[in-house]
């Protein structure tokens, strides 16, 4: 995995083989950040990275100047790897070892961008819990985005607050926004 752009552009990172992760591909990550680059000033936003895994997405935000990044993952090895990497690059990333759903139920701070990369084999009901908890607990800022990465075989268009999706190879990003009800 490599950092696509920003201060750490081109840096390669190698996660331990024993982590239960599937990092976002470089192609999909580059396409996602091209979209976000047209909507946000990265140094002015806050980011919540759910099911953070290796921290791949968080490193990209940090490299582009985001100073408020929180990663949540329940795997100790993932949290340890993110902490070590963030420290070695002096990136402003904080980590929380927690079940994502427990975190969303009990957390109160809103974010500009919430990125979730749950296991691709999640049942639709589990995917649905993510936007449900985010919007029910007001965790997204007014002009913010919830982005869920999933397989192209999963359709999230029927979920509350769904806006649109973008497909990149086998990866898909579904975008959710606050809308007037």
From TrEMBL:
Gene3D superfamilies: Vaccinia Virus protein VP39. PANTHER family: METHYLTRANSFERASE. This is 16S rRNA (Guanine(966)-N(2))-methyltransferase RsmD. Its EC number is 2.1.1.171. The keyword Lipid metabolism does not apply. GO terms for molecular function: 16S rRNA (guanine(966)-N(2))-methyltransferase activity. Keywords: Methyltransferase, Transferase. PROSITE patterns: N6_MTASE (PS00092). The keyword Thylakoid does not apply.
